[in-house]
Specification:
By secondary structure, the protein is an alpha/beta fold. It has 19 helices and 15 strands. It has three domains: 241 residues, D-Maltodextrin-Binding Protein, domain 2 (3-Layer(aba) Sandwich); 196 residues, D-Maltodextrin-Binding Protein, domain 2; 61 residues. The protein has a five-stranded mixed β-sheet with strand order 2-1-3-12-4. A four-stranded mixed β-sheet has the order 6-9-5-10, sandwiched between helices. 47% of the residues are buried. InterPro entries: Bact_solute-bd_prot1, SBP.
């Protein structure tokens, strides 16, 4: 057990470098830890507030004040201690707390990546199985079965999930540029290419200089542009079925077609030339400074992009599109497993079933509209108002970010299950993005391995993925040809990939 646990810990930090949490569009910044507190052991009298310590990543620069926490405590009859740690270094803190046995009663992970790496510890009995208890709680029992299934380990449920829309990826583009150049929203990849080429070559900003590019991208093959464009080409979502067996996406011919498309964009200067070394901050700056006309990622990013863009281009107009077809003529996109993060309950902190039920009771109350709205939107009249039955965020976004964001990222479920308000939007592009996010569910491609386990993937998946990631970037940059990419795939298989394929297929067959 110790050997397996050590292996998990060694990989946990490195795995975080491959995938990022999506959060609201994937933003992340540093903050300071606060309110360190020990977990509360033993039974607590039901008339007394349940004392619960919660560890979670902080995606803002400052730890939030206790304003929201104090109100939550009153509504849930709890005494809460929040241990906030900067999201950028959260895996390190998670590692340390896990290794020293000091995880608190409630442990939020960082993202799907850290959850995968924690599975070995889950199998070792270091976290409570909560599946048998959910039926005892009216609100927890409303969580979506499909998403719960995607978080199970060996068929058992250990976690609660923070829900996210299944498929919110798409294209955000300068509609004012497109209108000026007589270009419609693209309906297929050829039209997408035509738009990018025009944005570079036809002086869309009208300054008479050759200083614009089509697409701004970053060093992220998942939440950047690559995976979404690949889905337009019908590349499977991580894994797909071929010849009756599950195979990784990069073994499909459509993956090579996507590589050729990006290589063409790179050769023609339609994408930032150093995108493989570009951070999300720099990617966004290229767009909001007026140098790039297209951004592929979470369509919800349109709000922040618009807010900063109009500082430099007051007349700029943004719009979105996601119904973009590849060579088959059919539009498609990729889906996440329905969650952004999960919560685990360490057996080292929660000593018995009675205490576990007290903690679960808190989350059951969190899934009431009153508590969910408070934690997600803040105080009505201060951080938001209600219009047309939806929450309209205050114009003082900095105040809301500072006081509410830390708690917002911890709310389990989604509006359909916890009853909280949907967001009210008045930016036309964001309204369109919300409509397309719903429409995307009809064309979304799911990962068939989301609810499957592979021991080799858990222990070696991150290390092996770097082989494919490096080969992908090198091919696009033109320093690796098709034979070289195929050699990288062969290397992946030889160093453990074949075992991963076998294990996923065995789990897949057993589940059918």
């Amino acid at each position: 057990m110790k050997k397996r646990t050590f292996a998990m810990l060694s990989l946990l930090t490195s795995f975080s470098m491959v995938l990022s949490a999506c959060g609201d569009g994937g933003e992340s910044s540093s903050g300071n830890s606060s309110e360190p507190g020990a977990s509360q052991g033993g039974e607590k009298a039901s008339s007394q507030p349940a004392e619960i310590t919660i560890m979670l990543p902080l995606n803002t620069a400052e730890t939030p004040p206790d304003t929201i926490k104090n109100e939550v405590e009153k509504l849930t009859n709890t005494k809460l201690t929040y241990q906030f740690f900067p999201a950028d270094t959260y895996e390190e803190k998670l590692n340390t707390s896990f290794a020293t046995g000091s995880l608190p009663d409630v442990t939020y992970l960082k993202n799907q990546a850290t959850f995968i790496q924690m599975k070995e510890a889950i199998r070792d009995g270091q976290f409570w199985e909560i599946g048998p208890y959910l039926s005892e709680f009216e609100n927890l029992n409303k969580l979506k079965p499909l998403i719960l299934e995607n978080t199970k380990v060996d068929g058992k449920l250990y976690s609660l999930y923070i829900g996210r829309p299944l498929a919110r990826q798409g294209l955000i583009y300068r509609k004012d540029w497109a209108d000026k150049l007589g270009i419609e929203a693209p309906t297929n990849v050829d039209e997408f290419y035509t738009m990018l080429k025009a944005f570079k070559e036809q002086d869309p900003d009208g300054d008479g200089q050759d200083n614009t590019i089509g697409l701004t991208d970053r060093n992220d093959l998942v939440y950047g542009a690559f995976k979404t464009v690949a889905s337009w080409y019908k590349v499977p979502n991580n894994w797909g079925e071929k010849d009756g067996q599950l195979q990784p996406d990069f073994t499909f011919p459509e993956y090579m077609e996507t590589l050729d498309f990006f290589k063409k964009l790179h050769q023609e200067g339609l994408i930032n030339q150093d995108f493989a070394a570009t951070s999300k901050t720099d990617q966004v700056n290229l767009f909001t400074s007026g140098k790039a006309g297209a951004y592929v990622g979470a369509m919800s990013d349109i709000n922040s992009l618009h807010k900063d863009l109009i500082k430099n281009a007051p007349d700029a107009v943004l719009d979105v599109e996601s119904m973009i077809a590849g060579p088959t003529g059919e539009a498609s996109t990729w889906a996440i497993p329905g969650y952004n993060n999960v919560i685990l309950f360490p057996t080292s902190a929660i000593k018995d079933e009675a205490e576990l039920k007290q903690v679960l009771a808190f989350f059951d109350k969190m899934m009431t509209p009153e508590v969910a709205n408070l934690m997600y939107w803040g105080q009505e009249g201060v951080h938001y108002t209600v219009e047309d039955g939806k929450a309209k965020a205050s114009e003082d976004q900095e105040k809301t970010e500072r006081e509410v964001k830390g708690y917002k990222d911890s709310v389990i479920g989604e509006p359909e299950t916890n009853g909280m308000y949907e967001g009210y939007h008045d930016l036309p592009g964001r309204i369109h993005a919300e409509e397309l996010t719903v429409a995307n569910e009809e064309i979304a491609v799911h990962d068939p391995t989301a609810a499957l386990d592979s021991e080799t993937y858990t222990t070696k998946g991150v290390e092996l993925q770097t082989i494919i990631t490096d080969a992908t970037y090198k091919y696009i940059y033109g320093t690796l040809d098709q034979a070289g990419f195929e050699a990288a795939v062969a290397q992946w298989k030889k160093q453990g990939g074949e075992q991963i394929i076998q294990e996923f297929n065995e789990a897949y067959a057993a589940k059918k």
